[in-house]
Each structure stands twice: as structure tokens, then as C-alpha cells.
């Protein structure tokens, strides 16, 4: 156990969708890492649930294959002794009595029900849990995003889940909030006296948030084609990042203190709708090209040659209509099959009001604060300095560069490691409250409607490019460019 990790109380964690991509690729590895760090009490149980007719041994064998690369087999086998499997279908009675008997017991025992399934099943699962009184005492439910596909369906889900679990038991996960650099943004902003006085429209020129992926949709096509980049990334992850940059200082880290401030930002977003979506948004869809040195098919081919109107890329210009941010654009872009995997927030400060330097000293660049979420987590503050040595006064733009890996020499824990244990501890600070999800849909809905009304297809872009050229035009029209460091 590292100095900072403390063991949590014994718990049962039940993962609905236990054989799915998220469970196998993210949740189980995250739990295994916490186990290796000594944080998971030996009496805790992790229970995978899915429809497949597997038993404990079969499920363990599947996980063993997926996790064997992480560390030596002996430790993995000890961990897997804490993992169980129950086949269940939320829409059929079979197996539920047995499951309830297995997981029932003392209501004060911590039971976490993680719904890593399609949102259409959330209500059925919660109703079953309620029927078997598994919602009582220290039970918690975790809802994976997306919650619904618009405001109306999100409300329906939240209402139905709310009949079984109250808000304090409901953890709506957005794994971006568990990323180290995102939490570091809080510390950077509110743990240093340096930034806050400058953190406003008077001093900040604009903010860019980029979440670029090299992967395509792969075998997630069935889900993704119904969602698209706006629902999959912007409505949740990117808006949460925007909130962390833009919110007022909360009075403490108490869950509602932070979430109240984020909510105010969401409420202050200027509407994007039929009137301005064409100017403020760009949607794209990838075509065949190259990703990480290999030829890759386009999105329609990945879907089995189906024509689709779903966007795999979005760039947009958002604005926050309040005193702190009036007139400061927040440029957001995200896409699949882009040239590199990079997520970062770039805060560009205004130029100095007057230059005292001769033209031959070089140009003055604007200060930039770059928060790199992944890969190579770190913070860079770009400053102008004098190029050292003789030869006259020459200006150089250089970063004060803090790479977390170099500075601390430890690998950063995956976001899910932190968030899963926060659920066990019952700390909802880094989870979305119901009203935040609603406010995010309230803003995203009219964008989706405007796209649908326009009848325009997403613009094609070649895999391995930075999206449609219109995304470059979106920012260059304003005399700015996407941060070249990330490209
Ligand atoms: C998920 C999306 O929420 O986030 C995926 O559904 C996306 O489409 C993923 O690939 C990106 O997460 P990360 O942590 O790899 O940046």
C-alpha cells in the first residue's frame, strides 16, 4: 500500500454488464490495481452480471486472460478469488431470487450496483433491485453515461431511478472527473494565488479543449451510431472540463459546493440552436485513411457499409454569458481517428498591451497555460524570455514544463480507480448531480435539433487528419489557431 492509499470498508460491488467492454477493459483492471495497492479488503466481493450463461470459474478465466498482462499470475489468482459471476437478465425473473440471496444480508454493508449497460436497461435493473430491497441501507447505484439521449429520456431515467435510489445514493459517473490533471486543475486554480486574479475575460483571450483519439469506433458501432460525438463526449466529458475551468471558486470541496458552481456555468452557456449552429459548430465523419501507421477503413465501412448521419467529430465555439467570461470563446473539439491521442485544456492569455521590443527581437507570443490530461500528464506555462547569450535581444517563447511522470516518478492511476473507491467511500464530489445532467442536455439538445433540422450530413474527413477543414476555419475566422503543440 502506498502512503496515500487507505483501505476502504469491506464492500460488494456488482457490475451489470460484467462481460462488456468497459467492465473488462477499465473497471476490473482498476479494481485489480487498487487490490495490488492493498486497498480492497479481503472480504469484499466483486460480482459480474450479464446474460451469458457463465459460472464463477468461466468468468474468472475470461478476466484472467484480460488482466494477465498487468502483473504476475499469483497475485491475479488471489484477486480473482474475490470475483464472482451471476447470469441475469434484467427483463426476466430467472436467477433474481438466487442473486438477491447471494448479495442480500446486512443493509449497513456497502453494496455498489454499477450499471455499465445500455441506459435503456437502467430502469428495469433498478426496479428489480428495489423489488428485492437491495436499495436499502448503504446501497449505492452508479450510472454510466450517457444518461438518456436527450433531456426527456434523461428525465425519464432519473425519475425512475429516483423512485428506487435517492439522490444521495446515486452516482452518475463521468470518468473525466477522475483524471489526475482534472483534479489538478482544481488545485492549480484554487491552491495558488497566481492564477485566480487573471482568470477572467479581462486577461484571458480564449480557452481550447481538445479530446482527440486515434481509435475508430471499432466494435462499439451499434452503440456509437445511435450516440455520435456530441452525445458521447461533448454533453458530458467536455462540458465537465469546461465547468472545471470556468466555475467560480467553491467555498469548499464539499460535494454540493463544487456541483453548485458547475451547475451555474452550465446554466450560463449561451444557446446554440437553429439560428447559429451553422456558424458555431462543425460536425465530421471519418473516412478511410491511416491511423498509427496502418491503413484503416472509414466509419461507413466499419458499420458494414451502412450510410450514417452520425458525427464522429465535433468542433464548436461555446460562450459563457456571465461577468467573468463574457466574450471569451471556449473552442471545443473532439473526434475519433485523429492523428494522435491527446486531451488537453489550453488557456491563452491576452497579449501585452504594448510592446517595448524592436521588431528584430522577434514576435511576442501570448502566454498559454496548457493542462495535458493524457498522455504525458502535466502542466506547461508558456512564457516569453530573452534568448540567453550575446547577439542582441531576441525573444523566445518557452514552457515552464512540469511532467507528472518526471516530477513524481509514479504512473498516474486510471480515473476509474479513484472514482470506484469514491463510490465505496460515499463521496459524490466527482460525480454529476441530476440537475447538472439536465442542464447539460438542455444546452446540447438544441444543437442536435439544429443539425437534424438542417438535414446536412457530417463533413467527411480522412482518418489521420485533424477533422474537416471547416474546423480549422471555425477558429481561424476569429484570428486564432488550434494549439499547435497538440497537433
Ligand atoms: C468514453 C466514450 O466515455 O470515453 C468513448 O464513450 C471514448 O467513445 C472514451 O473513447 C475516451 O476516454 P479516455 O479516458 O480514453 O480518454
Question: Which structural traits does this protein have?
Answer:
six-stranded parallel sheet; alpha/beta; 487 residues; single chain
Topology (elements, then pairings):
Elements lengths: L10 E6 L4 H16 L8 E6 L5 H12 L5 H8 L2 E5 L8 H8 L6 E6 L6 H10 L7 E5 L7 H12 L7 E3 L7 H11 L13 E9 L8 H7 L1 H18 L8 H14 L8 H4 E7 L1 E3 L2 E3 L2 H4 L10 E6 L11 E6 L6 E8 L18 E7 L3 E9 L8 E9 H5 L6 H11 L8 H21 L4 E4 L6 H8 L11
Parallel strand pairs: 1-2, 1-4, 2-3, 4-5, 5-6, 7-12, 8-17
Antiparallel strand pairs: 7-13, 8-11, 9-10, 11-12, 13-14, 14-15, 15-16
Helix pairs in contact: 1-14, 2-3, 6-15, 9-10, 9-15, 10-15
The structure holds 6-O-phosphono-beta-D-glucopyranose (BG6).
State the strand order across the main sheet.
Answer: 16-15-14-13-7-12-11-8-17
Bound small molecules, deduplicated: 6-O-phosphono-beta-D-glucopyranose
Choose one word for the global shape.
Answer: globular
Number of strands: 17
**Which structural class fits the helix and strand makeup?**
alpha/beta
What is the average of the pLDDT values?
93
Indicate the low-confidence ranges by residue numbers.
none
Spatial gap, N to C terminus: 38 Å
Question: In DSSP terms, counting alpha (H) and pi (I) runs of 4 or more, how many helices?
Answer: 16
Strand content: 15-25%
Rg (CA only): 24 Å
Main β sheet profile: 9 strands, mixed
How helix-rich are the residues, as a percent range?
25-40%
Oligomer: single chain
Summarize the structure.
Helices cover 35% and strands 21% of the residues. The protein is α/β, with parallel strands linked by helices.
Amino acid at each position: 500500500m502506498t502512503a496515500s492509499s487507505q483501505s476502504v470498508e469491506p464492500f460488494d460491488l456488482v457490475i451489470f454488464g460484467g462481460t462488456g467492454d468497459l467492465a473488462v477493459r477499465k473497471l476490473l483492471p482498476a479494481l485489480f490495481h487498487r487490490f495490488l495497492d492493498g486497498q480492497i479488503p479481503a472480504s469484499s466481493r466483486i460480482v459480474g452480471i450479464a446474460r451469458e450463461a457463465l459460472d464463477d470459474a468461466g468468468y474468472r478465466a475470461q478476466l484472467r486472460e484480460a488482466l494477465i498482462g498487468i502483473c504476475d499470475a499469483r497475485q491475479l489468482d488471489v484477486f480473482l478469488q474475490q470475483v464472482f459471476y451471476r447470469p441475469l437478465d434484467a427483463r426476466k425473473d430467472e436467477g433474481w431470487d438466487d442473486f438477491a440471496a447471494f448479495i442480500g444480508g446486512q443493509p449497513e454493508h456497502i453494496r455498489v450496483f454499477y450499471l455499465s449497460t445500455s441506459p435503456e436497461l437502467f430502469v428495469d435493473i433498478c426496479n428489480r433491485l428495489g423489488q428485492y430491497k437491495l436499495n436499502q441501507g448503504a446501497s449505492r447505484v452508479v450510472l454510466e453515461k450517457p444518461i438518456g439521449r436527450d433531456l426527456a429520456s434523461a428525465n425519464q431515467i432519473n425519475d425512475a431511478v429516483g423512485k428506487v435510489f435517492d439522490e444521495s445514493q446515486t452516482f452518475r459517473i463521468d470518468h473525466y472527473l477522475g483524471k489526475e490533471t482534472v483534479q489538478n486543475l482544481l488545485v492549480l486554480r484554487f491552491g495558488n494565488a497566481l492564477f485566480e486574479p487573471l482568470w477572467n475575460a479581462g486577461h484571458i483571450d480564449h480557452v481550447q479543449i481538445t479530446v482527440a483519439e486515434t481509435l475508430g469506433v471499432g466494435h462499439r458501432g451499434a452503440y456509437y451510431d445511435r450516440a455520435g460525438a456530441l452525445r458521447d463526449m461533448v454533453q458530458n466529458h467536455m462540458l465537465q472540463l469546461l465547468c472545471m475551468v470556468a466555475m467560480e471558486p467553491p467555498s469548499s470541496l464539499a460535494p454540493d459546493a463544487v456541483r453548485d458552481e458547475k451547475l451555474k456555468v452550465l446554466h450560463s452557456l449561451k444557446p446554440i440552436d437553429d439560428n447559429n449552429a451553422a456558424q458555431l459548430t462543425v460536425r465530421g465523419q471519418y473516412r478511410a485513411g491511416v491511423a498509427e501507421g496502418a491503413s484503416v477503413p472509414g466509419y461507413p465501412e466499419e458499420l458494414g457499409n451502412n450510410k450514417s448521419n452520425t458525427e464522429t467529430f465535433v468542433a464548436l465555439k461555446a460562450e459563457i454569458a456571465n461577468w467573468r467570461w463574457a466574450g471569451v470563446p471556449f473552442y471545443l473539439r473532439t473526434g475519433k481517428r485523429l492523428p494522435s491521442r491527446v486531451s488537453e485544456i489550453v488557456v491563452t492569455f491576452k497579449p501585452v498591451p504594448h510592446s517595448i521590443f524592436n521588431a528584430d527581437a522577434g514576435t511576442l507570443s501570448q502566454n498559454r497555460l496548457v493542462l495535458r490530461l493524457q498522455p504525458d500528464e502535466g502542466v506547461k506555462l508558456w512564457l516569453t524570455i530573452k534568448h540567453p547569450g550575446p547577439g542582441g535581444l531576441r525573444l523566445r517563447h518557452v514552457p515552464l514544463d512540469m511532467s507528472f511522470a518526471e516530477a513524481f516518478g509514479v504512473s498516474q492511476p486510471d480515473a476509474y480507480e479513484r472514482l470506484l473507491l469514491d463510490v465505496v467511500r460515499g463521496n459524490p464530489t466527482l460525480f454529476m448531480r441530476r440537475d447538472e445532467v439536465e442542464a447539460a442536455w438542455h444546452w446540447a439538445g438544441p444543437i442536435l435539433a439544429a443539425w437534424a433540422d438542417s438535414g446536412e450530413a457530417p463533413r467527411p474527413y480522412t482518418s489521420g487528419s485533424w477533422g474537416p477543414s471547416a474546423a480549422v476555419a471555425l477558429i481561424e475566422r476569429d484570428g486564432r489557431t488550434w494549439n499547435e503543440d497538440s497537433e
